[in-house]
Amino acid sequence: MYVELKTKQAIIDGLSHIDKKDWIKSIDILIDGVIHDKEYRVFLDKKTGEVKLKTNLVLCEITQGNFRLIEVEQKFNNGKVTHRNIPVTGKIAEGEKHEVGMLREINEELSIDLNYLQEEYKAGNIKFVGKSTSESPSLMYPGTISSSLNYNYTWEMPLSMYKDQYIEEDG
Length: 171
Known about the structure:
Blueprint: E1 2-5, H1 8-14, H2 27-35, E2 41-45, E3 51-64, E4 67-69, E5 71-75, E6 81-86, E7 88-91, H3 98-110, H4 114-122, E8 126-137, E9 145-156
Parallel strand pairs: 3-9
Antiparallel strand pairs: 1-2, 2-3, 3-4, 3-7, 5-6, 8-9
Helix pairs in contact: 3-4
């Protein structure tokens, strides 16, 4: 039996048994993502006591020949770092279409012009390949389970667009 936690106090109460000192992001950011941005839904499993964070994600597997572009690590303003080794990935905002979220994420994470990305998508170069689900321990909130519905894309990025390193600008 799962109960959705919707208020700030309910979220705090639901997470009270978890050691939060290892969290990459703060509980304030999590609560903001639930209540204001609606990026997450937080559920408490009454039988197991597990807290689950549910979200919708876009993932884009970017390749060039035999090369694959992956996010190796994520650095936060508080100095913490998560090691990721994942394709370009991001949360879909409430009410946002997954294809719009995917283009936004590539634009934000790789600083590639949004108009260029929209043309690549319209031309069929950025392709939707299907949906999947995943559930695993959360990297951002140790002690919780991250559960997501994933919208998966592929893009054979033109060689002229590749850089040795991409650094997402804080915004």
